[in-house]
Design brief:
By secondary structure, this protein is α/β, with parallel strands linked by helices. It is built from 13 helices and 19 strands. α1 runs parallel beside α3, α1 packs across α8 and α5 crosses α7.
């Protein structure tokens, strides 16, 4: 760090250097969600970015500019002066921002930007930046009913039509909430670092566990969180693909831009997959879900008494989803996933290759869930990507990075 530089900038690059050398203008408007803005700024900095904030007067009533300056390590623009801050940050010159992020944005600001009205530092910066071709991401935060207002809907669609990305809210507890910090930051990373090399392609992805019901409501399952499948979906969407996302009851939130089909059982997942493939053409299918392999021979729709001294259950094998994909579409590029436990690398690769051939897959991704950082629910994974020619690529990294490496292989095959 250079002498005299703000000490808050010591966190730049603490997590990664994905955004190294990137200048992000963070615009903050008068929503109560502005309390999240400093957290968003810090997380962008941890990914390598230098963040500059612009605030409306209403935003300053929620979070003080001194707090924002501490968070970013840079002076905060609260009014436009003779320094023409909007041009400095977003004009047509080499040192301008790489991206403008509005988080949070009120409906008021969205309406003004859609109409080309400049009466705050934020709206003037946005008009300047949009005109200069700077990428813009907006994360709205407003009362749930406001999203249903036809003019608000029209304004959002108008901005999207000119290339502005709108991160729509999460609806929880009957309320609309600004997307999570990680989702907002990842959208920035994707916009600045990911090439849109899957535009025009549609990919089907399965994720999460499934349940095998034993009686009316008891079931057996596995601890799959859906993290790997969600990472695949997010990366595919960032690269321009359309995504059909067939999701078991995982804990990770699926990306809203995907067409999400929620399922519970292996049978429901099978029907959803085959139905989606019959309904429209998909260029690839990536079956990362941990679908249950066995279910009860006889399920009775009743509550099994809890006072029994024992309960013996006979299980039967359930249909394999991966074996039915190419029966529906023989030309689809099929990626399967195989989890094992406590075996050697050679055995893992051998079993994966055998299963790939048996099921007619084009690629298989195998991992040993007994290994540290490679099991269910982790943020990282260690996988072996095996192809039909017995080529093997070992990847040990975050699930986001693993998803990129898998999709790199898919892209080569389908484009």
């Amino acid at each position: 760090m250079a002498f005299g530089e703000h000490t808050s900038k010591q966190i730049i690059g603490a997590k990664s250097m994905e955004l190294q050398g990137k200048k992000i203008v963070l615009c903050i408007t008068g929503s109560v969600a502005a309390i999240k803005s400093t957290e968003i700024a810090r997380e962008l900095m941890r990914r390598g970015a230098d963040v500059y904030a612009v605030m409306t007067r209403s935003a300053q009533q929620i979070v003080h500019p001194d707090m924002v300056e501490w968070a970013t390590g840079n002076p905060v623009v609260t009014e436009l002066t003779g320094k023409i801050e909007h041009v400095t940050y977003a004009g047509e010159h080499e040192k301008r921002a790489d991206l403008i992020l509005v988080a949070p944005s009120t409906a008021n600001t969205i309406g003004k930007v859609a109409a080309g009205i400049d009466d705050t530092p934020v709206t003037t910066t946005l008009t300047t930046g949009i005109g200069a071709g700077i990428p813009v991401i907006i994360a709205p935060a407003m009362h749930a009913s406001m999203y249903k207002h036809p003019i608000v809907i029209e304004n959002v669609e108008k901005l999207e039509s000119i290339g502005v990305k709108i991160l729509m809210p999460r609806f929880e507890e009957g309320k609309a909430k600004i997307p999570g910090t990680e989702e907002i930051v990842q959208a920035v990373v994707d916009r600045l670092t990911v090439e849109r090399d899957l535009t025009g392609k549609r990919i089907l992805i399965t994720a999460g566990p499934t349940r095998a019901y034993l009686d009316a409501f008891r079931y057996i399952t596995n601890p799959s969180s859906g993290k790997m499948g969600v990472a695949l979906a997010r990366n595919a969407l960032a690269r321009g693909a359309e995504v059909t996302f067939v999701y078991g009851p995982g804990t990770e939130k699926p990306p809203r831009e995907a067409e999400v089909i929620d399922v519970l059982t292996t049978g429901e997942m099978m029907d959803a997959v085959t139905g989606a493939l019959k309904e429209r053409k998909h260029h690839a299918a990536m079956l990362s879900a941990a679908a249950a392999d066995y279910g009860p021979l006889d399920r009775r729709m009743e509550k099994t008494s809890s006072g029994r001294s024992g309960w013996s259950i006979e299980l039967k094998p359930l249909p394999k989803i991966v074996e039915n994909v190419k029966r529906v579409d023989p030309d689809i590029y099929l990626v399967g996933f195989k989890a094992e436990y406590g075996i050697s690398d050679d055995e893992l690769i051998e079993r994966a290759h055998k299963r790939m051939v048996e099921a007619g897959m084009d690629l298989i991704v195998a991992n040993d869930v007994s290994r540290e950082g490679a099991g269910f629910g982790t943020e990282t994974n260690e996988v072996f990507i095996v192809d039909g020619g017995r080529g093997v690529e070992r990847v040990s990294s975050s699930k986001t990075e693993v998803s990129k490496r898998i999709l790199d292989r898919v892209r080569v095959a389908i484009t």
